[in-house]
Amino acid sequence: MASVVSLAILASFWLWGRLDRQIASTAHASYQPVPLSNNPSYKPNKDVSIITCALDPPSAFTASLRSCLDNDPLELIIVTTEKHLGDFHKRLEMASLTADQAAKVSVLAIDPSKSGKREQMKIGIEAATGHIIATVDDHILY
């Protein structure tokens, strides 16, 4: 009796796998990318806020900062802890940003009692003014 139940469970998993593969195959075959608009209504310098949640700035931070700003966003918000606030200000000075680029960057510190990426993201989203919010890690080239 136990072997029949085991065989039925095994057959159910096999059938589930086949069904899942068929659904995925059908979805893949019908996928069409969204066409790009010839006249987009959103502009990065008016609508996009970039949020970076970070602690200790990595060596790639300056390159990441520059790549984000090269895309001309409305603003770049860096959210960190009070402990690392000075580190980010030093990195911003070392980045030799133009006045326009520096004006787009703000560094916010979260309360030490409320640490964690979720809290950092919450603070960044609340501070963002753009209609589109992009989140980027502090070592990613945008």
CATH superfamily of the largest domain: Spore Coat Polysaccharide Biosynthesis Protein SpsA, Chain A
CATH architecture of the largest domain: Alpha-Beta Complex
Tell me the series of helices and strands, N- to C-terminal.
HHEHEHHEHE
Main sheet makeup: 4 strands, parallel
Indicate the CATH class of the largest domain: Alpha Beta
Query: By helix and strand content, what is the structural category?
Result: alpha/beta
The fold-level CATH name of the largest domain is: Spore Coat Polysaccharide Biosynthesis Protein SpsA, Chain A
Tell me what portion of residues adopts beta-strand conformation. 15-25%
Enumerate the spans where pLDDT stays under 50 for 5 or more consecutive residues: none
Taking the alpha carbons of the first and last residues, their distance comes to: 59 Å
- Number of extended strands: 4
How much is the average pLDDT?
91
Please give the domain count. 2
The amount of helix comes to 40-55%
Rg calculated over all Cα atoms: 23 Å
InterPro entries: Nucleotide-diphossugar_trans
Protein name: Nucleotide-diphospho-sugar transferase
Signal peptide: 1-21
Keywords: Signal
Can you characterise this structure?
With 142 residues, the chain is α/β, with parallel strands linked by helices. It folds into two domains: 1-32; 44-135, Spore Coat Polysaccharide Biosynthesis Protein SpsA, Chain A (Alpha-Beta Complex). Helices cover 49% and strands 16% of the residues. It is built from six helices and four strands. The protein has helices at residues 2-30, 44-47, 61-70, 85-94, 99-104, 117-127; strands spanning 48-53, 75-81, 105-110, 132-135. It has a four-stranded parallel β-sheet with strand order 3-2-1-4, sandwiched between helices. The termini are far apart.
